[in-house]
């Protein structure tokens, strides 16, 4: 019978990683990490945000890029879902809209690795319905 | 929503937004029923709000005017002869219980449950989660607090951790013969 993975294997994995690289501890210079947030509200999920997040995690893992991926709620850009927010070290966050797995790969290879801007950025001056109402 | 895993992601996100510190997701196969229970210790809702949350044109958000997560899940459950009920108390938390016909032709497929649970755990590092899958003769459970303890300070958000958890959950669910 094949052995099923357990938390003991997770401890082993952690130790192996610690031997290979200087492991990044929780809260250790978080601004030096690439941070990716995937919008995971109903609008995002129905548009394929889960596949995009899965793809980002797989690619960042395979390419050994020092990045963390988290979920976030609706950012208000329901028309452009799936949306992701990418924050490079020492940079302002950038939100990309209409992200599919192909776009996600492009964002990794061009924006995250090389720092080039790619199409699909939602400008910061976009106003949600509610913000418009206040004017 | 194409599959039940998408609903799970969506409903857990409600708990996260309600500032829950602990979310417990239990999936149980009982006779001819598939039962999902989501329990959180978030802000909870008053009676009036609970009555309105399954109305697709009600939302507590200000960035849009519809709230489709719970209504879509309720519709899916009712299509299989089941139901969705909500128990909530302000300041204490919320419980959402969804019952679906396990073998009903209109029941959506489960979808990628291992990656869904793994991504919820690592994608919401400030929220703890207890995941349980119960079958009549066996069960699998995973507590994110134990995962964090095993990681001993390593950042849970690292992609390597998510990949590991995905595989671990997948293997354990297959071990108890969950039909993924």
From TrEMBL, chain A:
Name assigned to this protein: (2Fe-2S) ferredoxin domain-containing protein
Q: Which Gene3D superfamilies match?
A: Glutaredoxin
Q: What SUPFAM superfamilies is this protein classified in?
A: Thioredoxin-like
State the taxonomy lineage. Bacteria, Pseudomonadati, Bacteroidota, Bacteroidia, Marinilabiliales
UniProtKB/TrEMBL annotation, chain B:
Instruction: Quote the protein name from its UniProt record.
Output: histidine kinase
Instruction: Identify the InterPro entries for this entry.
Output: HATPase_C_sf, HATPase_dom, His_kinase_dom, Sig_transdc_His_kin-like_C
The answer to whether keyword Protein biosynthesis applies is no
Q: What keywords tag this UniProt record?
A: ATP-binding, Nucleotide-binding
Stretches assigned to the Histidine kinase domain: 1-104
Entry EC no(s): 2.7.13.3
Q: Which reaction does it catalyse?
A: ATP + protein L-histidine = ADP + protein N-phospho-L-histidine
Judging by the UniProt lineage, the source's domain of life is Bacteria
Q: Which SMART domains match?
A: HATPase_c (SM00387)
- Give, as one word, the top-level EC class: transferase
A molecular-function term among this protein's GO annotations = ATP binding
| Keyword presence, Nucleotide-binding | yes
């Amino acid at each position: 019978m094949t052995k099923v993975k357990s938390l003991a294997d997770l401890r082993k994995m952690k130790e192996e990683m610690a031997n290979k690289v200087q492991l990044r501890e929780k809260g250790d210079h978080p601004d030096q990490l690439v941070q990716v947030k995937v919008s995971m509200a109903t609008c995002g999920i129905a548009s394929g945000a889960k596949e995009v997040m899965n793809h980002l995690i797989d690619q960042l893992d395979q390419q050994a890029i020092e990045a963390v991926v988290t979920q976030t709620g609706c950012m208000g850009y329901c028309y452009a879902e799936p949306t992701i927010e990418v924050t490079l070290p020492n940079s302002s966050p950038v939100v990309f809209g209409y992200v599919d797995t192909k776009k996600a790969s492009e964002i990794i290879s061009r924006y995250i690795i090389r720092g080039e801007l790619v199409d699909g950025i939602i400008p910061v001056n976009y106003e949600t319905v509610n913000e418009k109402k206040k004017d | 929503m194409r599959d039940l895993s998408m609903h799970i992601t969506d409903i857990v996100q409600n708990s996260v937004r309600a500032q829950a510190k602990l979310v417990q997701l239990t999936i149980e196969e009982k006779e001819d029923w598939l039962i999902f229970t989501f329990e959180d210790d978030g802000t909870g809702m008053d009676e009036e709000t609970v009555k309105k949350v399954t109305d697709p044109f009600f939302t507590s958000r200000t960035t849009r005017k519809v709230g489709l997560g719970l209504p879509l899940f309720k519709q899916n459950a009712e299509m299989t002869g089941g139901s969705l009920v909500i128990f909530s108390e302000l300041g204490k938390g919320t419980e959402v219980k969804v019952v679906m016909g396990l073998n009903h032709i209109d029941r959506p497929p489960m979808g990628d449950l291992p990656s869904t649970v793994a991504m919820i755990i690592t994608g919401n590092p400030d929220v703890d989660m207890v995941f349980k899958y119960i079958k009549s003769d066996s069960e699998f459970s995973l507590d994110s607090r134990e995962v964090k303890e095993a990681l001993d300070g390593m950042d849970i958000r690292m992609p390597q951790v998510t990949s590991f958890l995905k595989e671990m959950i997948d293997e354990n669910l297959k071990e108890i013969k969950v039909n993924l």
